[in-house]
Amino acid sequence: MAVQLQLKQGELIALLEGEIDHHSARELREEIDSTASRTRPHTLTLDFSRVQFMDSSGVGLIMGRYRLASEWGGQVCVANLPERLEKLVSLAGIRELCTVVRTEEEEK
Amino acid sequence: MKTEPINEMKLVFPSSSSNEGFARAAVAAFAAQLDPTVDEISDIRTAVSEAVTNCIVHAYRDTIGKIEILMRLYEGGKLVIQVKDKGCGMEDVEKAMEPLFTTGGEERAGLGFAVMESFMNRLHVTSRPGKGTCVTMEKRLVGRSGYGR
Predict the structure, then answer these.
(1) CB contact under 8 A, B46 and A22
(2) Any idea which architecture B7-140 has in CATH?
(3) Which residue range or ranges hold the STAS domain (chain A) (predicted)?
């Protein structure tokens, strides 16, 4: 599991890669939070396009970042959710907290 | 009359979080003999991940114990997965199973049992404080070949 972080005009984009479970979520959280707390982005975008698997730890990750960004009035955006994760995200009611969007297809 | 499984397998491993991925992969490999669909495999992997995470986060909170997974396959495509621990157990199983209830802290969504319940066809949980917990999940696999239909 890895994350690439990119700051673009006050938006912090976290490109998540691999499998998100309880084990990997901690490292992701630490990496995202250290940059987010420092840069205080107006939008924290979590890009799931390269996530192969996630369980409710991924939901916890989204909810935790929502709480963090709220501290400075920022919002969380969930981008490019693969279809197989749709069921979990609906069950968790993520859409009530965050906007779920599809950004342009990235090149392979 | 009790039906005998056509195949069964037992897996025992320590409750280190680094074993979560391994547990999912092992159960998925066992289920693969039924030629399940991508969605079915994804449901099983997710449910197993939740059950194993519960053992790690709750049952063996400050310690490392043994997690046992028993997989059984029955005629007609029925898969039964049992995840057992000898950890702290729960006083109130019903309360623990309520969506959004968690004792796992801020980063836990409290959705583990809700996910197991909705991703599998049946879920049964027994627990005794100080003795451990046993989660039994059942899924009927139709599979790509329609074997279980």
Answers:
(1) no
(2) 2-Layer Sandwich (3.30)
(3) 1-108
